[in-house]
Amino acid sequence: MAVKKKNTHLIIGGIVIVGAIIALSVLQLGEDVVYFYTPEEASLKAATLQGKTIKVGGMVKVGSVNWQAENLDLNFVISNLKGTEIAIAHKGTPPDLFKEGSGVVVSGLISDDGKSIKSDRLMVKHSEEYRAPTDDANMDHMLLKQSLFKE
Amino acid sequence: MLMSKHNKEFFLGLALFFVVEICWFFALFIVPAEKMQGEVYRIIYLHVASAVTTFLAAFILMIFSILSLRSQADRWMHLGRASAEVGLIFTVLTLITGSIWGRPTWGVYWTWDARLTTTLILGILYAGYLVLYSSFPHGQERSRASAILGILIFSCVPVIYKSVTWWRTLHQPPTLIREGGSTLSPEFLYLLIASIFSMVLLSLWFISVRAKNLALKHEIESLSV
Question: By C-alpha distance, which of B167, B108, B175 is closest to A98?
Fold first, then answer.
């Protein structure tokens, strides 16, 4: 009886530990953990990504934002700052930090040609900088770019 | 009048809590709002402090687990369990404050990026430790099984910490410890460090008091059988 009980406990413990190791190693697979595509990746893979809701991260192109408050239509262009651009059609109020030049992650369906996305969710990425209004240090735009594209 | 041992402990806790409160007062009323994010950034003084405390709890859980495997003394087991409880509380606090911050800045309360997901896994592992601990009666098996898991839990911490560097995430990369120095204005930096230190000290106090409490509980239970 005592031996049997001991084994059961070891099995429970083993399952918990193995489960944790699996959970960790799945996350450790690195390349496979793609939270969002870059505009370039999304454009190139557009044909294989049809019908799937995908996330794409990029910078909001300066001068591209068109916000129609009456019908909540938000149109803008995201870019990888290297020439690949995707037009985003979003319905809904943007988050407070959304502005031209900011980093965003959109989730939605991509067109066949990879040139536009119909977005159902818009998230704004902020950088790791926190500055007091009196601080003369300028916000470093490169930080956001590095954090988005890991370059 | 001489203070009793319990009184001293109580006043130490009260003093630590008071220091945390002073940091919160500074965070809410003294330091200015942030340039880009405005008022909402003030939550970092609670969010980052909670996250660091969670990491520290995992580290000392690992230390107590190693000691528990080596000596089998009840003391290490009780300290281990107390660390896991405090770790779980601060993981939940980190996730909640992160959500509250995420809604106005990112636009969402939650997203399955690597930082958020790995932090959630740490929370589940802490809870798993407590379940495993309470599924055994007091004794060698409990101390061995929970110590093994206690050591394993710490492996989450470097993964969580590096998640924002290894993978594309919505969560921003590290602010405090990074190449080229921290990216905070000086007044923000000092207050953040003070907030982290005071929260860490308070959590150590929680762990020590809770471990004593668990030892007393065990003593009372073994007397009543």
Answer: B108
Task: Please give the torsion angle defined by the CA atoms of residues B174, B175, B178 and B180, in that order, rounded to the nearest 10 degrees.
Answer: 150
Please say if the pLDDT value at position B5 is more than 80: no
The interface residues of chain A toward chain B in range 73-92, judged by CB-CB distance below 8 A, are: none
Q: Judge residue B225's burial from the number of C-beta atoms within 10 Å of its C-beta, 0-12 exposed, 13-18 middle, 19 or more buried.
A: exposed
Residues 6+ apart with CB under 8 A from B51: B90, B94, B119
CA distances to B80, B138, B216, B217 from B222, rounded to whole Å, are 20, 10, 10, 9
pLDDT digits (tens, 9 = 90+) for B183-192: 888 899 999 9
φ, ψ (nearest 5 deg) of residue A110: -95, 150
Cβ-based neighbours of A2, under 8 Å, separated by 6 or more: none
Q: Which two tokens stand for residue B179?
A: 């190449």
The 10s digit of each residue's pLDDT in B91-142 is 999 999 999 999 999 999 999 888 999 999 999 999 999 999 999 999 888 9
Band of residue A1 on the pLDDT scale cut at 50, 70, 90 = very low
Residue A74's H or E segment, with its range, is strand A73-79
Specify the pTM. Answer: 0.87
B42-224, which class in CATH? mainly alpha
Q: Where are the domains of chain B?
A: 42-224
B36 in contact with chain A, both atoms CB, cutoff 8 A: yes
Asked if A141 reaches chain B (Cβ–Cβ under 8 Å), the answer is no
Grouping H, G, I as helix, E, B as strand and the rest as coil, residue A121 is strand
Could you give the domains of chain A? 35-128+138-149 (2.40.50.140)
> Which residue in A6, A131, A140, A144 has the most chain B C-beta atoms within 10 A of its own C-beta, making it the best mutation to test that interface?
A131
DSSP assignment letter at A113:
T
Closest CA to A19 of B56, B131, B2: B131
Residues of B in contact with A23 (CB under 8 A): 121
